[in-house]
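Membrane iron-sulfur containing protein FtrD-like domain-containing protein: structure tokens wanted.
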Amino acid sequence: MSKKKVGKKEQFTQPQKSKTPMIVGVLVAVAAVIFIATQFIGGGDDRNIEYFGEPVAEPRSYIGQFIGMTTVEPIFEDGQIKISFDEVNQNNIVYFEGENELGEMVPIMAYITPTGRLFVGSSMCEPCRGTTYSLAGETIVCGNCQTTFTIEDHEFIAGVQACGQYPPTDMYPVIEDGLIIIDEQEVLDWRIRAL
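Answer:
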């Protein structure tokens, strides 16, 4: 069998074979790899949702802003500590205190993340003993040592290495009837982790 030779003129006048099936096949393969990677390998987003819970407020951006804490007065009743959800939602980050079993004041903060999730927990950078934080862009920054964590999951970004090992701890809030509620036992049991 001999191959039929194609003349110069025929090379340019005959329609080219379509590469569409090959391109579609490559795109499907790439999409499958991305899907598998995000479903089975990624896993990072699940941890964030467990740590901060589902969104409870409208998403917002703190890019280009530096927002300090607003002090609020909590209500202590029936073994619970309550603050207004609206105050947190309007001020973005608030500060209040409770007392632990040792008689020490426990600094507590509540803030809304850019994705609309709520964090309520300790407001102490334990090694340096700073008790205030600010929201700055996509970060939360200690007011004392400037140690910086990601706002969504408290991953250490920069600052004092020792302080970066002790991010704020969650106190597992719930929202009922417009109030953020934490179990008073969370505060009673709270202790400084760093020596």
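The radius of gyration is 27 Å. The helical segments are 8-13, 20-42, 44-52, 85-91, 161-164, 184-189.

Cheers.
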